[in-house]
Amino acid sequence: MLYTNNYVIVAIFLGLGIFLPIAALTIGKWLRPTRPIEEKYTTYESGNEPVGEGQIRFNIRYYLFALMFVIFDVETVFLYPWAVAFNQLGLFALVEMCIFVALLAIGLIYAWKKKVLQWTSV
Is the pTM for the entire model greater than 0.85? Predict the structure, then answer.
C-alpha cells in the first residue's frame, strides 16, 4: 500500500507538470491582445533595418565547445553534493565517483586527441 501511495504522488506531480504549463499558455493566449500589423513581423535589430542574410552558418567548433562545457558543468553539479556528503556515503560511493570521473576523463582525452579543444580561425 505504501508503494502504491508513492506512485499516486508521482502521477499527481506528472499530471500537474503537464497541466500547469498548458493552462498558463492557454490563459495567456486568451488574455493578451492581438493586433497583427505588418511591422510586427519584420526583423528587429536595435531599431535599425536589417542588412544582409538573416541566417548564417556557424562553425561546428562553437557547438563542440558548448557541448564540452555542458558536460563538464554537469560533472560539477554531481561532484558538489557528493563532496558535501562524502563522510556519510562510504567506500561504495567513492568507487562510483571514481568510475564517473574516469569516464569523463576518457571523454576529455578523446576530445583532446580529436583536436576538438583546439581553436583555429576559419
Answer: no
